[in-house]
Design brief:
By secondary structure, the chain is an all-alpha fold. The chain has a single domain, classed as Rhomboid-like (Rhomboid-like fold, Up-down Bundle), CATH 1.20.1540.10. Helices cover 73% and strands 2% of the residues. The chain is elongated.
Length: 218
C-alpha cells in the first residue's frame, strides 16, 4: 500500500480533462477520431478518453474518475498506472474494432474499470477479514453495474448523462471492455497473489498452533 498523500496520476489526468474541455480546439487534437487513427494518429486511442461532448458528460465522468482513481492510487500507484494504461488502450482498440463509431469521447470506460477493480479488491479484503456484510454489498454493487451496462447496451441510452449532442452515439460497450481489463489486472496483479499466499500460510500456522495447544504440548 502506498503512503503518499497526493494522488499524482489522478490529479494530472483530471487536469488534462479539464483543459481539454476548457479549450474545445484540443478536443479535435485528442478525440478518438477513428478515421485519423487509420491515417497514423495512434495516440488518439489513449487521449480520446479525456475529451467530452458536453459539460454534463465531462462533470459526471470526471467526478467518478477522481473519486475512484484517487481511492485506488492511495492504495497502489503501480496498480493504478497499470489499470489506467491497459484500459485506456484496450478500450480504444476495442471501440475501433467494433467499427460502429466515427468519434469516441469520454472517461466512462476507464471509470468502469476502476469501479470493478475496487469492488474486486474490496471483496478480497472483506473475505480475508470475514466481513460478510461488506462482501455481499460489494457483490451487489457488481451485479447492479452489470445490470446497468446490459440495459444501456439494449436500450441505447445512458443512466446519468443526457446531454451529449443530437448525433452522438452512446458507447456502453466501452464499459464492458473496462470491466474485462479490471478483471485481468486483478487476476495478474502479483500483490493480490502474494496476499492470498500469505493468508493461506498464516491460516495453516494458526491451525498448527491451535492443534498443538489442544494436545497440551505447548
Amino acid at each position: 500500500m502506498n503512503t503518499h498523500r497526493i494522488p499524482i496520476i489522478t490529479t494530472a489526468l483530471s487536469f488534462l480533462t479539464v483543459v481539454c474541455f476548457t479549450f474545445p480546439q484540443l478536443n479535435a487534437v485528442f478525440e478518438l477520431n477513428f478515421h485519423l487513427v487509420e491515417s497514423g494518429q495512434w495516440w488518439r486511442l489513449v487521449t480520446g478518453h479525456f475529451t467530452h461532448w458536453s459539460l454534463e458528460h465531462c462533470a459526471w465522468d470526471l467526478l467518478v474518475f477522481c473519486v475512484l482513481s484517487a481511492s485506488l492510487e492511495m492504495y497502489s500507484i503501480k496498480t493504478t498506472a497499470t489499470l489506467l494504461l491497459l484500459s485506456a488502450f484496450s478500450i480504444g482498440v476495442g471501440m475501433y474494432l467494433q467499427n460502429n463509431y466515427d468519434i469516441y469521447r469520454g472517461l466512462s470506460g476507464i471509470d468502469s474499470a476502476l469501479f470493478v477493480y475496487l469492488c474486486l479488491l474490496g471483496i478480497q479484503k472483506a473475505s480475508m477479514g470475514e466481513r460478510n456484510l461488506e462482501r455481499m454489498c460489494l457483490y451487489g454493487a457488481l451485479v447492479l453495474f452489470m445490470g446497468k451496462t446490459l440495459i444501456e447496451c439494449c436500450g441505447g441510452y445512458t443512466f446519468f448523462v443526457h446531454t451529449m449532442g443530437d448525433h452522438v452515439q452512446t458507447a456502453p460497450f466501452s464499459h464492458i471492455l473496462g470491466a474485462i481489463c479490471a478483471i485481468v489486472v486483478f487476476i495478474l496483479n502479483p500483490t493480490v497473489s502474494i496476499q492470498k499466499s500469505v493468508t493461506r500460510i498464516m491460516d495453516k500456522r494458526n491451525f498448527i498452533l491451535s492443534t498443538i495447544r489442544q494436545n497440551g504440548e505447548v
